[in-house]
Design a protein that fits this description.
Length: about 750
């Protein structure tokens, strides 16, 4: 009988942590009986800690719950005196930190978890370490950028440890929190990557309550300017919430964010209906922060629906309700108050908020997401009061920040105001350039070609300039004609005078004739010189016009080539997004692996076109920078590669794009094969990458790892993977030679002749 109880005890010890998290009312009595029947110190320590944690996770922790937690932690410490197990000491500090945080004692809680982390980092308990990292992240705010970065770092480490422990539910939760933090920071690409990973894990687990995740994905897609995808995710979130009969505050968030997407798409009426529904739900739950957030988004909708007074009344109610706003909320309040007063033409009241906005801006980093809200508001205000110099200055700051964080829709509006301000200042060349940039960004937002309008604008500008030149030439011709007529009249008068003088005195006439003859010769000579000078001036003018035309054509050609590379990169990014989306609906590991490998190849090619787009040289790729960025991307995308060191020895080589693409794909295949198969999960290793000149115009690309090498009996010719076949094909395309050796790891070496441009 005692043996049976002992077996049941160890079985329950394995499942009770989950019970404690899911149903504390059931867990506490069961754990108390187990503690009374337990006969070993290790078992008593473990059950005491589970009891302490069961009291901590109770909703609305009371003083009695806190006292019970501390009592059981004390029991665990006394039972662990003989066992002296460092794991249980660290677990006790973790539970103590949660208890302090629930009581609102932030300093004591932070000290407790910082005490637990160093102990767990030297022990091999990845799940315990991940729990401690997640708890430590609770002590950092998302409202301060330096704390948000630390919070993200802790979540990244927790994801790695949960994955190592095979804890899929907690790994998915940590990824979701990580994606949300990147979203708050304005890092949309990183946020989408983590949230799509979360979606894949949730679907593997068969979870149906995905409305919160869909809602967050839709919000980020809208922020990136992909309103179609944002609307799709938003409607999917609303549909899922209705299917799950979700009437919680989460429905308030879903309706609010969907209204933002509809607002960006221009459906202001439907956006207002959803925002007002969201506000009713927030008022029903009497949740002040939710009411403030919804109000902040509802105000611009009222402004777009030509009801600025209603927007101002709503803002006034929010200010009265929110007495001590955070800095980020203060930004929302000030920017919306300025916009309301500008719309109502109460510019003196709008001006009273400008110093506050400038102060808040000075307290933030240049590329903070909230800086874009401040810059956009200052642009609108200064444009209204016609201070166009300040408009161009803040448009420049806003465009720079939007490019850095990927806020495309705000970037489009910034270029539009920049174009208007330059036009008002008479800076036509700058205005045309910013109008081009506005159209390019707008095209990437809505997938509509507007190049014809820009071309017509340029043609109109050139036509106006030519008309001005023609008018000026006509005026010069008329002036010269009048001068000629005056000269001929003067000559006639001179001849008449001469004839009169000749009749008076023959001698004087002879002298006058001689003088006149010399005068005529001099005039003819001057005329010939003048005609020659005019001919030279005309040729110089024609030559200058040809040079100007050639410069314009070259500039347009470079712009078009850059646009092509930009479009190709965008298309590759779309393909990668489609692959990521397809991966979210696949469950077959082979298919997911194939899609993942295809995404790495697409990224390798996309990076080349990005380099061409950003570079001043439209034909050559700087392979030194490119290879470093490619390895950095693979390291960050695979994750968990702290045990692998990349040794790069890259010469300053520039390749033509026809050779850069196959070379980059060969490098991508060699690196991904080495990362995936060369080392075990815990084994430290080195991947060496070199790209050098070998003389006589030959280049050598060499990738070598010191890993496990090929399995015994493995023959590349008969068992080679698709990646190996791809490397062989690309080597043939380069007209090079391929050598693959398995000596102290795997070595892949490709030699080919550099193509001279």
């Amino acid at each position: 009988m005692n043996r049976l109880l002992l077996v049941l005890l160890y079985i329950l010890l394995g499942i009770l942590p989950c019970m404690a998290r899911q149903n504390y009312r059931v867990a506490v009595p069961v754990l108390q009986r187990m503690l009374a029947e337990c006969t070993t110190d290790t078992g008593r320590v473990r059950v005491s800690l589970e009891l302490a944690e069961a009291y901590v996770i109770r909703p609305g922790m009371t003083d009695t719950d806190y006292d019970s937690t501390m009592m059981y932690l004390q029991h665990a410490a006394s039972f662990n005196i003989r066992a002296k197990d460092a794991r249980w000491e660290a677990r006790a500090d973790f539970i103590r930190s949660k208890a302090y945080r629930e009581k609102g004692w932030a300093k004591e809680g932070r000290d407790a978890i910082l005490k637990a982390l160093p102990r767990l980092e030297v022990l091999n308990y990845p799940e315990d370490l991940a729990d401690a990292l997640m708890e430590a992240a609770n002590y950092y705010s998302i409202d301060k950028e330096n704390q948000l970065q630390e919070k993200i770092s802790l979540y990244e480490k927790a994801v790695t440890q949960y994955h190592k422990a095979g804890n899929m539910p907690d790994e998915a939760y940590a990824l979701k929190m990580l994606g949300d933090c990147y979203h708050c920071w304005g890092k949309y690409d990183e946020a989408l990557l983590r949230l799509n990973q979360t979606l894949v894990l949730y679907k593997k687990m068969g979870r149906k309550d995905l409305q919160g995740l869909y809602d967050l994905l839709g919000t980020i897609a809208t922020g990136k300017g992909d309103y179609s995808l944002g609307l799709t995710y938003g409607l999917q979130a609303l549909k899922t919430a209705e299917a799950q009969k979700d009437t919680s505050l989460q429905l308030c968030t879903i309706c609010n964010r969907l209204s933002i997407t509809l607002f960006e798409l221009g459906d202001y009426k439907k956006a207002q209906e959803l925002a007002e529904k969201s506000l009713r739900i927030a008022k029903q739950y009497q949740d002040t922060m939710s009411m403030i957030v919804v109000t902040t988004n509802l105000v611009p909708i009222y402004q777009k629906n030509n009801d600025p007074q209603k927007a101002l009344d709503l803002m006034t109610q929010m200010v009265e309700m929110y007495k001590q706003p955070l800095d980020k909320d203060q930004v929302w309040i000030y920017t919306n108050m300025v916009k309301c007063y500008v719309e109502l033409r109460q510019l003196d009241k709008a001006a009273s908020y400008i110093p506050g906005l400038l102060t808040l801006s000075s307290q933030m980093t240049r590329y903070n997401y909230y800086q874009t809200l401040i810059y956009a508001t200052l642009v609108k205000y200064y444009y209204t009061i016609r201070q166009f110099d300040k408009v161009t200055y803040y448009c420049m700051l806003e465009a720079d920040a939007c490019k850095r964080i990927g806020h495309i829709n705000a970037l489009s509006l910034s270029y539009l105001y920049w174009f208007r301000a330059d036009s008002a200042l008479g800076n036509l060349s700058s205005a045309i350039q910013h109008y081009k940039e506005y159209k390019v960004v707008n095209d990437s937002l809505f997938k509509i070609s507007k190049a014809g309008e820009i071309a017509r604008l340029q043609v109109q500008y050139d036509f106006d300039q030519k008309n001005k030149d023609i008018t000026l030439k006509q005026q010069n011709i008329e002036l010269l004609t009048r001068q000629g007529l005056l000269q001929r009249a003067a000559l006639k008068e001179a001849q008449l005078t001469r004839n009169i003088i000749i009749t008076g005195a023959v001698m004087l006439l002879l002298l006058l004739i001689l003088s006149y003859n010399r005068y005529q010769l001099k005039q003819e000579s001057n005329k010939r010189l003048q005609l020659s000078q005019e001919e030279i001036s005309k040729k110089n003018l024609s030559l200058q016009q040809l040079i100007d035309t050639q410069d314009k054509l070259l500039e347009e050609k470079e712009w078009l080539v850059k646009e092509i590379h930009h479009r190709v990169r965008n298309n590759l990014q779309i393909v990668m997004s489609l692959l990521n989306t397809q991966a979210a609906y696949l469950h077959d590991s082979n298919a997911l692996e194939a899609i993942s490998e295809s995404r790495y190849r697409m990224q390798a090619i996309s990076l080349i076109h990005q380099k061409l787009y950003l570079s001043g040289n439209m034909a050559l790729i700087d392979m030194q920078n490119y290879i470093r960025e490619l390895t950095s991307y693979l390291r960050s995308d695979f994750g968990g590669l702290q045990h692998i060191y990349f040794d790069l020895d890259i010469a300053a080589i520039r390749l033509d794009v026809s050779q850069a693409v196959p070379a980059s794909l060969i490098l991508n295949e060699a690196l991904t094969n080495a990362i995936k198969y060369a080392f075990s999960k815990q084994e430290a290793g080195i991947i060496q990458v070199s790209f050098k000149c070998a003389g006589d115009g030959m280049l050598t690309l060499h990738v070598h790892d010191n890993g496990e090498g090929f399995p015994h009996g493995f023959d590349i010719k008969t068992h080679g993977t698709m990646g190996m076949r791809l490397i062989e094909t690309l080597t043939e395309q380069l007209e090079g030679t391929l050598v693959i050796e398995a000596s102290q790891g795997v070595s892949v070496q490709v030699s080919f002749k550099q193509q001279m441009s």
